[in-house]
Design goal:
single chain; about 140 residues; mainly beta; Methylamine Dehydrogenase, Chain H; four-stranded antiparallel β-sheet; globular
Length: about 140
């Protein structure tokens, strides 16, 4: 899978290098998270999040008011999105918002899941923050 500036996500055949399927629906650059269980999540500069099951579109939500920069899996909960709107949000795969985490004083550019299960985020405010995704606690 790859996300593109044209608002699409593409499924590639790894052997031939050919595009097998194009997922459309965003209007700007697109970030993609694909999991081994067949769930794909896309987020975009348009602030929307789409969820696909086995590449079939299931649901869409306006998740953020600005560009989504990164999508990270949170095992046993779902996934997290970070955005230029300064928020980190934790979602389940039905696109129910489980947590909205605030504390960054600027765009949130990146996120990764730590071995502890905590979520690390980095932002334009020159800080790294560590969160408990389940409770929303800033550690």
């Amino acid at each position: 899978m790859s996300g593109s500036w044209d608002g699409t996500a593409k499924v590639w055949d790894i052997n031939s290098g050919e595009v097998k399927k194009t997922l459309e629906g965003h209007t700007h650059g697109t970030e993609v998270l694909t999991l081994p269980n067949g769930i794909t999540v896309t987020g975009s500069q348009d602030g929307n999040i789409h969820v696909y099951h086995q590449l079939v579109h299931k649901k869409k939500v306006k998740g953020h008011t600005d560009a989504i920069r990164k999508i990270v899996e949170i095992p046993s909960l779902g996934f997290a999105t970070v955005s230029n709107d300064e928020f980190v949000k934790v979602w389940d795969y039905e696109l129910n918002a489980l947590q909205t985490l605030s504390g960054h004083g600027g765009y949130v550019f990146c996120a990764c899941l730590l071995e502890s299960g905590d979520l690390a985020t980095g932002g334009d405010d020159c800080t790294v923050r560590i969160w408990s995704p389940a409770s929303g606690e800033l550690k």
